[in-house]
């Protein structure tokens, strides 16, 4: 049986060296866990990825938790979670401290102006890709438009909107 | 009290993150920026940038926001609250995967939520762009960043770092 320390260390590596969003992380997971260490089979990896996609929570986080659980039950899930989050969290805390300390620095403000503009472009690209993938028929288009109007015009709470969309999904996508 | 609210919000938002990591953005923007004013819109965009340039999942942006709200303890509470629902849900689902897979209600509910996330993100995007695309240069950076990410396989971290350098040179 794998030790929790080993699970933690591999996920620490995955969490420390996977930049650039979901797909590079998935590739990294696969290389480290399936190809290199053979801790899980290709099929188990595909199933873990599927579970990550069909459970609430960030899919990549959930994929890691699922693999950890398959390796060593709850302890493995926790070791994978902490390992995966560790480096990013430490860096985010350091950057937050630096950011708040340097808040009035003109150079940092200039840098962040450029960064904020790029993040808008990044979000737009993600929304565009999600739109193409998810808005595929009149039902999904109606749900997207309704959610947009509910937030943009009627200023309803997004949490409430999502719960309502889930309830509508039960009605619209019920199997006969 | 603030930390309790922070934890409850992040727990709920992560439990409702359906359709990709970005699904939490509209919920967090509403609660952290609009409702509680813990962050300005600009700081929220900066938090997303931090989540993107740091390795690992976007979720670490919650540590950044938690730090802003309650210092080091706030950051740790934020991370704990963000991961807790995921650990609970995923361990249960992995255990009962075969039964879960057959639940039509999960599939139908998700099918309803995913397109709604797209609609919410469009609204948030419009809102966030109003405060940050303030002149031709910022608009240009946004368009280039959109085009690079949509049509090439370039790493988003590089685009954010590059635009930071551009910002330093241009503003």
Walkthrough of the structure:
The complex is a heterodimer of chains A (176) and B (171). Helices cover 82% and strands 0% of the residues of chain A. By secondary structure, chain A is an all-alpha fold. Chain A starts with a helix and ends with a helix. Chain B has helices at 2-15, 24-35, 41-53, 61-95, 97-101, 104-132, 136-151, 156-170. In chain B, 57% of the residues are buried. In chain B, helix 1 (2-15) packs antiparallel against helix 2 (24-35) and helix 3 (41-53) packs across helix 4 (61-95). The model of chain B has no long low-confidence stretch (mean pLDDT 95). Chain B is mostly helical. The radius of gyration of chain B is 18 Å and the shape is globular. Chains A and B meet through helix 1, helix 2, helix 3, helix 4 and helix 5 of A and helix 1, helix 2, helix 3, helix 4 and helix 5 of B.
Write the layout of secondary structure elements.
The complex is a heterodimer of chains A (176) and B (171).
Chain A: H1 4-17, H2 21-36, H3 42-53, H4 59-101, H5 106-134, H6 138-152, H7 158-172
Helix pairs in contact in A: 1-4, 3-4, 6-7
Chain B: H1 2-15, H2 24-35, H3 41-53, H4 61-95, H5 97-101, H6 104-132, H7 136-151, H8 156-170
Question: What descriptors fit this protein?
Answer:
heterodimer, A: 176 residues, B: 171 residues, mainly alpha, globular
- H and E string of chain B: HHHHHHHH
Broad structural category of chain A: mainly alpha
Radius of gyration of chain B: 18 Å
- Termini separation of chain B (Å)? 40 Å
Largest sheet entry of chain B: none
Summarize the entry for a quick read.
The complex is a heterodimer of chains A (176) and B (171). Chain A has two domains: 4-101, no CATH class; 106-172, no CATH class. Chain A is built from seven helices and no strands.
């Amino acid at each position: 049986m794998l030790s929790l320390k080993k699970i933690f260390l591999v996920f620490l590596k995955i969490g420390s060296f996977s930049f650039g969003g979901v797909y590079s992380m998935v590739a990294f997971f696969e290389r480290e866990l399936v190809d290199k260490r053979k801790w899980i089979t290709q099929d188990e990896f595909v199933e873990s990825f599927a579970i990550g996609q069909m459970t609430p929570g960030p899919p990549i986080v959930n994929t890691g938790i699922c693999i950890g659980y398959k390796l060593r039950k709850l302890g493995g899930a926790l070791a994978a979670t902490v390992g995966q989050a560790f480096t990013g969290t430490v860096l985010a805390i350091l950057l937050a401290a630096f950011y708040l300390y340097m808040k009035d620095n003109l150079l940092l403000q200039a840098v962040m102006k450029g960064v904020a503009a790029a993040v808008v472009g990044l979000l737009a690209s993600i929304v565009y890709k999600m739109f193409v993938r998810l808005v595929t028929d009149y039902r999904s288009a109606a749900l997207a438009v309704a959610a947009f109007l509910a937030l943009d015009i009627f200023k309803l709470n997004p949490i409430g909107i999502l719960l309502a969309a889930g309830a509508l999904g039960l009605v619209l996508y019920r199997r006969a | 009290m603030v930390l309790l609210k922070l934890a409850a919000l992040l727990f709920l938002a992560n439990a409702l993150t359906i359709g990709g990591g970005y699904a939490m953005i509209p919920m967090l923007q509403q609660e952290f920026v609009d409702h509680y004013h813990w962050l300005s819109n600009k700081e929220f965009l900066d938090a997303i940038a931090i989540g993107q340039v740091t390795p690992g999942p976007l979720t670490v942006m919650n540590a950044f926001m938690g730090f802003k709200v309650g210092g080091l303890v706030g950051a740790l509470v934020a991370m704990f609250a963000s991961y807790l629902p995921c650990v609970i849900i995923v361990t249960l689902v992995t255990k009962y995967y075969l039964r879960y897979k057959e639940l039509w209600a999960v599939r139908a509910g998700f099918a309803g939520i995913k397109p709604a996330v797209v609609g919410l993100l469009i609204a948030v995007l419009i809102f966030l762009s109003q405060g940050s695309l303030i002149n031709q240069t910022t608009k240009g950076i946004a368009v280039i960043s959109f085009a690079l990410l949509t049509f090439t396989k370039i790493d988003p971290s590089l685009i954010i770092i590059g635009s930071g350098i551009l910002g330093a040179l241009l503003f």
